[in-house]
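Hi all, posting the design record for the shared folder.

TITLE: backbone redesign
STEP: 1 of 1
STRUCTURE INPUT:
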């Protein structure tokens, strides 16, 4: 994505959205179209489920390994959910970005707020459903929740959407193809931005 001899730092693209918004479908379609975007694989201390592969679905770590990395400040963000740790290893992200590779991170709003503090230069995108009514229809269509669970999930979605106001961009997922095009437009625009740190290097090769 970078032109000339100057290698611009890769973007950290952080995408969040309430359950039922269609994050997985949209991001899979984005990655299929853009092989140069690297998906950030999270780390966890939970046991692999049948069919899951280390380094593909998750980086599976022991509790000791995970806690050791916490002590070294080796996570972009991390959280303990029930008895297991989940987190985003920092080293690989920094390595790829330094090489000019864009890194995509799918994360919940709680984790994203932590990332905003650590990486203010990140590109934060919140994926929205066309409406709350449509979100309700999508969740209900799964057939996995009773009425009480459905209402709880919708209430949780409303809370997450409220946090979405803190993000730099909002993309409505009315149609997957359109949502992907909007994400691509954001990424292209971010690549064309000039920050003060890179300005001299970018324009140096054009001086006569």
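Okay, here is what came back for every position:
SEQUENCE:
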């Amino acid at each position: 994505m970078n032109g000339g001899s100057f290698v611009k730092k890769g973007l950290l693209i952080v995408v969040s959205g309430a359950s039922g918004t269609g994050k997985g479908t949209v991001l899979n379609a984005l990655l299929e179209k853009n092989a140069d975007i690297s998906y950030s694989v999270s780390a966890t201390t939970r046991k692999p489920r049948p069919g899951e592969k280390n380094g593909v679905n998750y980086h599976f770590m022991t509790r000791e390994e995970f806690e050791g990395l916490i002590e070294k400040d080796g996570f972009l963000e991390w959280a303990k959910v029930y008895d297991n740790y989940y987190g985003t290893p920092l080293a690989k992200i920094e390595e790829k970005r330094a090489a000019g590779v864009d890194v995509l991170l799918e994360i919940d709003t709680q984790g994203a707020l932590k990332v905003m503090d650590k990486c203010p230069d990140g590109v934060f995108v919140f994926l929205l459903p066309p409406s709350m009514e449509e979100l309700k229809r999508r969740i209900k269509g799964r057939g996995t929740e009773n009425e009480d669970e459905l209402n709880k999930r919708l209430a949780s979605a409303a809370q997450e959407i409220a946090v979405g106001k803190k993000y730099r961009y909002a993309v409505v997922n009315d149609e997957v193809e359109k949502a992907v095009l909007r994400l691509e437009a954001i990424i292209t625009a971010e690549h064309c931005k000039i920050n003060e740190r890179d300005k001299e290097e970018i324009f140096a090769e054009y001086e006569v």
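COMMENT: The CA atoms of residues 75 and 89 lie 5 Å apart.
Let me know if anyone wants the other runs.
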